[in-house]
Amino acid sequence: MSEFILHPQLAADTHLVAPLQLCDVLLMNDANYPWLILVPRVANASELLDLDDADRTRLRHEIDSTSQALRDIFQPDKLNIAALGNMVNQLHVHVIARFRDDAAWPKPVWGAQPSRPYAPQELDERISALRDALPLRM
């Protein structure tokens, strides 16, 4: 059996927020949007179909938990949830808080504007707020 290894592109583009039962919750290093990525720690998974029934159910619960955390903290106008994997085929799910006044609205966030990496203090504050919002939902 293969060991789970986070795809190098996801490792380069994100910061760990917290491990949940199935997924690592990662924060996309783009301060333009509150943007989480859930990565199931399942070796060689590239599609939802690669998860067994129990893991698919667990993933759904973890998507709901992270979505609720984003809603509680940021009160977005919309939550975008997607598992695309065209550039990174490792199974991962984007959960993005969207606002009618964000630079990409109403289009997808990809390529809408240059990524704005978090400043160190801003990153610490964002991760702390997210961690505080997640424990009751893990």
TrEMBL record:
Q: Which UniProt keywords apply?
A: Hydrolase
MF annotations from Gene Ontology: hydrolase activity
Which PROSITE patterns is this protein grouped with? HIT_2 (PS51084)
Q: Where is the HIT domain?
A: 36-105
Q: Which SUPFAM superfamilies match?
A: HIT-like
Q: What is this protein called?
A: Diadenosine tetraphosphate (Ap4A) hydrolase
Q: Which organism is it from?
A: Solilutibacter silvestris
Which domain of life does the UniProt lineage start with?
A: Bacteria
Spell out the Pfam families in the cross-references. HIT
